Amino acid sequence: MILDQHLAALVVIVPLLSAPIIVLLRPRGLAWAAATATSLMGFAIAIALTLGVLNGQNYSYHMGSWPAPYGIALSVDALSAIVLLVVTGASALALLAGRLSLNEEINEERQPLFFAAWMLVLAGLVGILVSADAFNIFVFMEISSLASYVLIAGGPDRRALPAVFKYLVMGTIGATFYLIGVGLIYMMTGTLNLADMELRIHAVSDQNPILVAAGFITVGLALKAAVFPLHAWLPNAYTYAPHIVTVFLAACATKVSLYVLLRFDFFVFQQNLTGHDLQFSYFLMPLATLAILIGSGIALFERNLKRLLAYSSVAQIGYIMLGASLVSMAGVTASVLHIFNHALAKGALFLAAACLAMSCSGMRLNDIAGAARSMPWTMGAFVLAGLSLIGIPGTAGFVSKWYLITAVLSQGAVGIALAVVIVVTSLMAVVYVWRVIESAYFRTAPENALPLHEAPRELLVVTWVAALANLYFGLAPSVPVSLSSTAAEILMRHTQ
Amino acid sequence: MELLGYYNYWIFAVVLMIGFYAVIAKVNLIKKLIGLSIFQSAVFLMYITMDKVEGGTAPIIQEGVSDQIFSNPLPQVLILTAIVVGVSTLALGLAIVVRINEAYGSIEENDILDMDRKA
């Protein structure tokens, strides 16, 4: 098929071009319909790319037919394909579910602008994933970040504004650190193409600038990915954003930064810097462990449902980094797999939170007391996704935690300690998910509360699709597992 | 002497830290944004200084001249893009500050945090 070779470019161009068109779609509901259709198209392209990658095809695309390293290259391999699925899938599901919820939160005359910004976030995130050029990644990163600040600030809650200001400042510092790192590498190698960079760094005699670049890039991206202790922007931004925006961003925004982090540290630096694997794991393993412990710990005591889930995200990012910091095949596989599975679980949980928000007066655990009596379907989906977040066998969360524990246990004494951390924090997850369930099922609604009613059907159907996906990928995990083990092979090919 | 010879990189580092300090230490949101701008400009300086070749000119091929030395044009192109990104970040940041001022009646970080805590 002639289209096939252009898919890697199309997946970026479709949302990018639809953004200015959507701005013009003034009639009621049309902007939403166009944005949803575009997201679904992006999802379809991502599925086509994934199927191609599973069949062993390698997509590389030269913009304007300029050959690399002079032209701008795009490429899609297993690692980009699995994150592409997450990003486009999250966008499509969130938009499909979100029409009524967004109607409540976003002024009607602002909606075309809001959906245009959404398309820019999508184009930026997808652009990072298909790009094979370090500077292009920066540009796409800024496109997606700037547009996502607009999305988060779009809701009616004024507390979103200081949260988004903090996110803007920290996000910009992260991106600028990344830019410094790329500049230093360019200074030493004269190239921006990742594959070319990998070869040329090898020939650089003085490693110091590259080492500094590795530091800047790792820290900058860790800031964007909310790796502990650089997660300060995340909880408030997730809590006060419009509910549907939280679904989209929680499922994929930090994951894309983690993807770039993995790609740089394994693909570009690992085999070129002596001792980089040790530095990488000594630096990130303690941070990842702290992220898991402290994120879960704060979630235990949090009173706001969305903020509880946000702190749980900080812990889950810790699991992803922990897998990567082992620098072993099994560890990296677990890490990539958890990117996919955590997006499924957290996406479904935030969708259920959006359902609750349709009729509850607020998002505190007291506000949802007794909600399960009038909203059994919503809470059913929440419980299912919560089980996946904890990692109960039969759900997607179990598969990646199983891989992670297996990977950790092959690391000797440290490994046993880490396995204990994973098990203990999974129990903590039982407790914080239980607190929500306890409030919704076993407490009675406050006296003066308005009567609750079940969420609108379209929102509920999508929430259940997301929740059942957790079950499906828990029972039949072969596609994400094979994608993430291929991704791990790509990342680790020089290390062993 | 060798350290002084890298004075352009020293300027980069110092300007970078001045901007970073302002972002962290100032409580006024506008001042934070000014700091952020200085921080980004320092990186522009780094890119611009690394492409300069001594005696180099603009990379335009002239007829009859073959031993011309050129400065590398690529970092300048990159930084043009980064400047655009910086300007849009600043514009968006200022727009958010305007909305914060409308919603809270203040642009001091402490006051805003206090108001949120009371609410």
Outline:
The complex is a heterodimer of chains A (496) and B (119). Chain A has 496 residues and is mainly α.
Alpha-beta content class of chain A: mainly alpha
β-strand amount of chain B: under 5%
Q: Round the Cα radius of gyration of chain B to an integer and report it.
A: 21 Å
The chain pair with the largest interface is:
A-B, 25 and 33 residues
Distance N to C terminus of chain A: 38 Å
Q: What portion of residues of chain A is helical?
A: over 70%
User: How big a fraction of the residues of chain A is strand?
Assistant: under 5%
Order of helices and strands of chain B: HHHHH
Q: Shape of chain A from CA axes?
A: globular
Q: Roughly how much helix do the residues of chain B carry, as a percent range?
A: over 70%
The rounded Rg of chain A comes to: 22 Å
Secondary structure tally: strands of chain B: 0
Task: Give an overview of the whole structure.
The complex is a heterodimer of chains A (496) and B (119). Chain A is 75% helix and 2% strand. The longest helix of chain A is centred in the last third of the chain and has 31 residues. Chain A is built from 19 helices and 2 strands. Chain A is an all-alpha fold. Chain A has a domain of 222 residues. Chain A has a two-stranded antiparallel ribbon. In chain B, 72% of the residues lie in helices and 0% in strands. With 119 residues, chain B is mostly helical. The chains are: A mainly alpha (496), B mainly alpha (119). Chains A and B meet through α5 and α6 of A and α3, α4 and α5 of B.
